[in-house]
Every structure is written in C-alpha cells, then in structure tokens.
Specification:
The complex is a heterotrimer.
Chain A (H helix, E strand, L loop, with lengths): L2 E12 L5 E12 L3 E5 L6 H8 L7 E6 L2 E2 L5 H11 E5 L10 H12 L5 H14 L14 H13 L5 E5 L7 H18 L2 E5 L3 H4 L4 E6 L2 E7 L2
Parallel strand pairs in A: 3-8, 3-9, 6-7, 7-8
Antiparallel strand pairs in A: 1-2, 1-4, 4-5, 9-10
Helix pairs in contact in A: 3-4, 3-5, 4-5, 5-6
Chain B lengths: L1 H11 L3 H13 L5 H15 L11 H17 L1 H7 L7 E7 L6 H12 L3 E9 L4 H8 L3 E5 L6 H14 L4 E5 L7 H5 L4 E2 L3 H9 L3
Helix pairs in contact in B: 1-2, 1-3, 2-4, 5-6
Chain C lengths: L1 H13 L1 H37 L5 E5 L15 E15 L4 E9 L2 H6 L1 H4 E4 L7 E5 H7 L6 E5 L5 E10 L4 H4 L2 E5 H7 L8 E6 L5 H9 L2 H5 L2 E5 H4 L1 H39 L1 H9 L4 H37 L15 H18 L1 H9 L2 H6 L2
Parallel strand pairs in C: 3-8, 5-7
Antiparallel strand pairs in C: 1-9, 1-10, 2-3, 2-6, 2-9, 4-7, 5-8, 6-7
Classes of the chains: A alpha/beta, B alpha/beta, C alpha+beta.
Chain lengths: 229, 210, 379
Amino acid sequence: MDNILELKNITKFYGDKIKTQVLFGLDLSFERGSFNSIIGQSGSGKSTLLNILGTLDRPTDGDIIINGKNTKTLNANALSQLRNENLGFIFQFHYLLPEFTALENILMPVRILGKKIDKEVMARAEELIELVGLSKVKNNLATQMSGGQQQRTAIARALMNQASIILADEPTGNLDSDTTEQIYDLMRMINKKYQTTFIIITHDQSVAEKTDRIIEIKDGRILMDVRKK
Amino acid sequence: MPLFEEFNRAFQALDQEHCIQLTYDALSNEIISVEDLYENVLRKALSVLTDKETDPTHKIWREHVQSSIVRTIIEMTYPFVIKQRIEILNKKAAVVCPDGEQHELGARMVSDYLRMLGYETYFVGRDTPRLEFLDMIKTLNLDVVAISVTNYYNLSKALQTVVDVKEHFPEVTLVAGGRGLDANAEVLVKHDVLITHDLNDLKRILGGNA
Amino acid sequence: MKLAYSIAKRFLGYNKGQTILIAVGIAIGVSVQIFIGLLITGLQDSLIDKTVGSTPHITITQEDETSFEEFMIDGGSFTAVAYQAEGPAFALSENDDASVLLRGLSADGDKLYKLSEKLIEGRMPSAMNEVILGSGLSEKLDVSLNDELTLRTITNQSVVVNIVGIVDLKVDAINNSWVLATLATAQSLFELKDEITSIAIQVEDVFEADVLAEGIMTFERVNEQNLSVVNWKDQNEDLLSGLNGQSISSLMIQVFVLVSVVLGIASVLAITVLQKSKQIGILKAMGITDKTASWIFLFQGLLLGFWGAILGVLFGVGLLLSFTTFARNPDGSALIPIAFDPVFIAFSGSIAIFSALLASFIPAQRSKKLSPIEVIRNG
C-alpha cells in the first residue's frame, strides 16, 4: 500500500533562549486508509507530533510529505490550502465555532475553500449529517448540543472537503464511555466507507486497542510501533 | 477430527455439560493428551471466536460464557497434567499477564505446560501491576517468567515490564506468547525475550534448562 | 472577503450586548461631535450675521472726507456694492427738528443694509426727493408716512422731501439719525454732481474681506484718487480673536471625543480578539488564511463604525432638533439658529467609520499572528 503521510527525521525544539528538544529524529509513515493510534504519557511529545503532522506546527528539522507533496517548501497560504483540502481535525474540546449552527460548522471548510454552497455541496453536507446522526439537531448552535453531538459535528466537518487524512487529538477525551464507543464506531465506519486515514491520539485504552496500529511515543522518541495483524 | 467437531457443536450451543463430559471422557480414556486438548480442541475453538471489529453480530456475553466453559475444562485437567509430568525439576516458573491484560486462558494453559515440563509453577494471571513483578520474582525466587499478551495494546506494559526485569534480574529467563505478539514479536525479541507459540516451542526453548 | 464579512457579522451578532455597547459608544462620540460642531458653527454664523450681516464689509472713502468720482467695482466675490453720498443735515418738520445723517444709496444699498426687510411701513425710495427715516427719528420729528420734511445742509441748501417709508434699523443711534434716499437725491442736495463720498461693499465670505480689500487697494482708480480701503476685520479684532478661540476649542473637543472613541473601539476589539482566539485558531486549522482572519476584525471595526455612525447621526440630529425646538427666545425664534450642514454630518460619520477601521488594525494584526496550536494547546 502507498503511504499517504510520511515523516522523515523530524526534530522539534521549543524555546528561544533555553532550547528544549521535544522530538528526536522521528521517522514514521502511514498507509492510505489505515486506522492508527498514537499513545504516550502527557509531555511525551505526541501532541507536538500530531500538530506537525497536521502542518499546524513546523518541525525544526526534517520533512513531512503529505500525499506525495513535501510541505517544507510551502508558504503559509499554501499550507492553509493543503490543510483545507487534505486534512480534517478533531479535537478533545470539539472546537466548533459556537456562533454557528451544526450545519454551518460543517459547511465552513467548503466556504474557506472558496467554493459556492450549491445543491451538490448541500447534498453532501446532508449526507454527512445523516451519516453521523445529527439530522435532528443540525440547526442548533454548537453550544446547544451535547458533547457527543458536538464531536459528531466535528467529525462531519472534518469530512466535508473529502479529507484523505483525519487527525484526532483525544477525540473521546471529554466523553463518557458509551459516547466514546459511538464515536469510535463512527470513525471506524468512515474509515471503511471512504478509506479515510485516521491518526488518533488517545489515552483511552478502549479506543487504542481497537485501532490497527499503535505507536507509542516516549520522551520524544518512538518507543513502540505495533500492528494488530 | 470428530472430537473437535462434536465439541465445537456443543461449544457453539453453549452446552457446558456436554463440553466437559466430552473432554473428560477423552482424557480419561486417553484418546487425547492434555496438549492435544489444548492445541487442537480448546485453542481451535477459541480461535473461531470473532470480535466486534470483524463481526458486527459478535456478542460479548456469549464470549464470556464460552470462556467460562474453557476455564472449567482447564481446571478439570489438573490431575491429567500431573499424570503427564515427565520429571520434577528444581526450578520455579510464574505465568503472568501484564498490567491491563484481561485475557488469561492462554496463560492458564501455558502454566499447565510448564508443570508438565517439571517446573514448580505459579499461575499469577491477569492484570498484574508492573511494579509488583520485581517483588514477585524476588519472593518466589523464580527461574522463568512467562508473559502472556492477548490484546496488542498491552505490549506497551509488557515491554516496560521486560525492561524492568532485565535490569534487576538479568538471570531470569523471560518467555512470552499470545495473540498480541503475532505481528509484533520483534518488540520483545529485541530485549532477549523468547517467543513461544505452543508446547513444542516451550520444550525447545526451555529444553536446555530441562 | 465575503467569508470574513459573514463571520464578522456573526461574531458581532452572537455577542449582542457587547456589540450594542460599542456601537452606542461610537454613536455617543459621533453625536457629541455633530452637536458641538454644528452648535458652535451655528453660534458663530449667527454672531457674525448679527455683527456684520447688514453692514459693509469693505468701505472705500476719501481720506480728507471729500467726494470722489464713482468707478465700477465688479467681481464674483462681491455680493453687494453700494455707492453712497452722505453728509450731515438738519431735518425740519412741522413739529420739531433734528440733526440727521442723509445717506443716498445706489441700488445695492437696499441689499447691503437689508432695508426692505427692515421696513415697518411704506416702501423704498425710488424717485428724487423720496426718503425713508429711522423709526426713532420719525418719532422724534413726530412725522408719519407721506408727510413732508425739509432737509437743510450746513451750506444752507435745502430741499423738501416726501417720507415714503419708516424703517427699523435695530440700533438706536442709527434709528435716531438716519435719513435714506436715492443716490441722486443726496448728490443733488450736497452739490456733489456725479461724485460720491464712499463705496460700501459686502463680500460672499466675510473672512475673505481683508484679502479682497487688499486687492481693491491695487486698483488704479483707488491709487489715483488716494482713497482709503477699510475692512471690517481691522475694525473688529476682539470679536475675531473671540471667534477664533471658540473655533479652536470646538475643534479640540471634537478631536478629544474622536480620540476617546478610537481608543474605546481599539480596546474593545482587542478584547474580542482574545475572546475569539479559539475560533480563529479553529478556522486557521481548517485552512483559513492569515489575511482572511485579519479581515474578520477589520470588518468588525467597519461594521461597528458604520452602525455607530448611523446611530450617532440620528442621536446628534435629534439632539439638535430638540435643542432648537425647546431652547427658544421669548419671541419664539430659535435661541441659536443651528445650521444643518449635511456635509459636516457626513464628514463626522465618515470620520467615525474611518476611526473604527483604524482602531481595528491592531486586533487584525494580532489575529494574523495567532497560531492555531497556541489555542489548541491552551484548550
């Protein structure tokens, strides 16, 4: 299988005067359509790794290749566009725009892309809303939804531009165990249906043990990289 | 093998009594050995069990009932294990599942294998805290520690445990097995852990000590 | 751009209370500016109009107080040019006599002194030996409309004139002494032939009077006849410095109101960047560009400025209207006639919009620098 995402010798330092090294020459690659998790204690560097994977943060050194494109040479605007078209994000605290309804949040990536909200786009949004089970609350403001519903909205939003990679940072960190299960099932279903690649940071064993690959980060290095089969 | 097929039919029907009767008779009449029972009947039957990932109709409660049947059969084999023991070694072994690991039927079978190989064996079983391993090795004065990992998530804890043990008790022989290692043996092999899949592997690995 | 605008609109709509508060803040600034600006302008206009509205702005005379030859003064800046022949005389009626000032005026004289407006009865003199009198003088001489009057000069020339009108010239000293006639009547009585004693000029912009007077001084005829040119500004320096001071303080008030409005908007918008930093972070993670992110805040500033200005204009005009309606003289006329200057009102509104835009530059710059990870990391 081809690699949709590759990291080559990624290092990251923080701080100007006192430099702290957070990542130590990581090499990692993710196959298209795979369902991965990253685990590690807090402060291990796993969130930094995910932010670098998502081009939200730049590494001090090393290359990130997304869909065959090296991001090193891209400027801020090109990176924004790359994110918009290839990457979807799901965060622990949902991070919806509270001023907008669920449907409007889901449509936001399309508007950022500069596309018109035509019938086709609306149809896709409605399909995703149906898929994540939000039909009844699609016109609610983000603040009028439960944690699980907000996370479903975030998932639908991440899918709106047909992102090939979804990066999730503790997507169930704020949810009870039943809702966690539902969100996991949803992500897995999307993974199978659209061949979307998932990279999920989680400390939740019930989620990690069901993914196909677990990468454990410790002190900025890969401690373990294991596959289910 | 007709025994397996008959057993599996009862096993799928959750007919505990019939399962036990079948295996007890087979062992009593020396139709099969304990090893045969474990490898060719119980493991085979357990391997047919699905999980939720691959089979949406999978029911956990069924899995629990079936686990319980297998556990009862394993407990029942104890006299036959003793009978099949070749020799008594002056060595001690413990079978342990790492922190977080809930599946212990495989570990339970391995502990019987070790008994048959002549080890004085302690079955510690599931979900054993990492920090207690060292205390256990010291208190029981162990020669062999067998670690069973079914859920590959628990490899992380297993790995940390192995590193701890290697640091404090380099002379202890570490053996590991279980489905969690199927695709990831190298994670533990790197730390001089011996990987085992069945009794023959164990015999080969521990043969030098036997 | 469209996206930034619609996000800005939604952000403002979501925090309604805060938005209304800022808009009202801007509105109060704008309305104070409009009110103060127009009030001071109105006050000054009215004061100037009262002071020099019906007097000559530039007067050309012969220094030795003799007459000179009439000459044409023409130009777009001059609204009235009155040729005058004047001199002292005695007025004798059947009942009494008084010393008067007889002033003969050319046609523009009516316009310059606003005589038609000030007529109590009768009409303007149009033929030889027709005069109008100040109301005080008519009482003193105990004459009324259509009575006859004898005017006698110091040189004992006399003429009998007809009273065709009584005029109230508002100032007692003038009311009690002026007799106004056509230029020809005065020239004949004072034996001036075609000569005149002065030229009175009104100009369009009263504050230009000194410059225009200097221009007149360069006229050939003025130099030839050794005439002197005096403008009202030279004669009213105290009034002018008073007006000037008032203008400056009005401007200062307006500037400080504006500065406080700008600071207010800037600080509130700076806080909204903090409030919305989470949203900006999410939008950036989704791929919004730094430029679009900063436009959100510029649009917020523009929208606040726009609605603040509209509200402020309404407040300000309302305030002026109620001021002119309720603050009245005993006779019912407005205490201060305020000039509704639409250009000034539009200017004031535009300044508010511009300041709001200016004030939003700082938060816009800050939002540009905001990194999505900062937001995500700080949860």
